[in-house]
Amino acid sequence: LHDEIHSSSGINAEWPLRPGATCSKSAGTSHAQHHTEIILDVVDSEREALQAKLDEMEKVLDGSDAELNIVNEMLEKITKQTEAAIITITKEAEKVIDEVNKKKVGLVSQVNALKMGQTERISSFKDDLKGWSKKRREIKQALGNVLKTEDDVAFLQGASEIRGDLKARDKSSTLSELNSETVDKWINFEPADNLAIQVDCLDMGEVKLIKEEPVGTNAVINSNSRVNTARRHRRRNTAGNSRDTEQETPLQINLERFTEENAVIIRYTDQRRAGRRDQASANAPRIRAIHQIGSCGTNLGDFFHPCGMSQLSNGHLVVADQRNNRVQILEENGSFVQMFGNEGTGIREFKSPGDIAVDGEDNIYVLDTRNDRIQVFTADGRYKKIIGGIGTGQGKFCKPQAITIAATGEILVADSGNNRVQVLSPDGRFSHSFGREGSGEGEFMEPCGVAISGTDVFVCDHHSHRIQVFRLTGEFKSTFGSFGSEHGQLSYPSSVAVDPNGSVIVSEYGNDRLSVFDSVGRFKMCFGNEGNDLGQFLSPNGVSICSPDANQRSTNVKFYVCDAWNHRLQMCDMIC
Length: 576
What we know:
Helix content: 25-40%
Number of helices: 5
Shape: elongated
């Protein structure tokens, strides 16, 4: 401190001070007194400096107070503005909420109106469908009435009259043995006015009738119509004498096809042959319809054109509800379990789902037909992955119509637009394909159903009206069926399934029935006809065999049919 004092005041003094010593800088003054004065001067100087700083800080504080007041005023102003804005926003929000509620009420009303309108349209559609079905039945009935007219009965009698030279032929000869060589000898034809002007024998047992006027609904012979005509046949008795006998000769007249605008083909089969055929089929299996599930609509459990289905291991039915663009899961008794999907192109969205398959792990494969892909889901409807996409390359699809999964896990897809069947590995990768466009062996005209039994693959060749059989590796094996409505013939087969006994069940879109064949294509039976009663069909589609009960010893087979345009499923039982 001594040094600092002298240093600051320019005084040099020895330190420590001795008692009584005098300061060399201030003669006659004690060193301590001198230092005290200096310290007081320093303190006063420092006090003045501090006071100046304090005054300056007070001025700053005064300025800060002013600024703080300004800030407070601004805060109060902002607070008032904020409160006013909140009040305004709240009022606007309340107005918006009111408008939204009003719009919501309006939208709900519109939705309800749309639902009501849709319900009315569905009801109208049902009425129209019933009307169409009624008209179809009326047309069929009208077609069957052609032989009831006097002229046509007269024509049938005249056209089927056997001349006297029949006596020289085998008495077992029948009208069904007509052919082009014997038509002149066998038929004595005197046409009635405006009835027929020409009779051409086309093939064994077939006669072509050409009318002067175009064939209308009153001029076509209905399938399975039966007419009894009394004919006078001249026969010889054992004594060689001739006598006239009146004989009832029942004929079954079946419609074959139209060949021209004004022509119809009639096939003649005599009752004796039909009797032998009925006796031969007496031991064939029988099918009965047990119950139906669903009706036309958009509610849960209703359908709009169901066209494919399969079953989970717990027995639940998984149905492709095509026109509703969704998948429904139902119990076997028809109780609703779950639904997923709606119209669109995204995940869990569908465009006309066409078929369903289930693998050994209960994964659900949905054939998303118009999206040209397969979507895979778990048994409870959770999305897993997508397979495929539109195209003609390997693993790509064009309007695929059917899917099935082999015991090995391989996925078979009827790639209809590409006229081929594609085989994919269990993880969805392309393995191989077979088929191309055409009507020859191994060629397709829109394949739309596929089933597998062992290593044999059965394919519905839709527009060729036949079933083709291949090895799983793709080699052609055989074919059966042809266009028509006779036993063993097919009309636009749409789905195929093979039961545990090896029977091949085919749904016919065109004949509104099911046809059953054995594993090598021999006809066994057919079931159903056009209509909406139980056991009748309107364009049946997907067929799904029920999993056999391990405790059931019976060889009977239960299966489901997607009765597409009756908008329902029918459960059937084939009694073997």
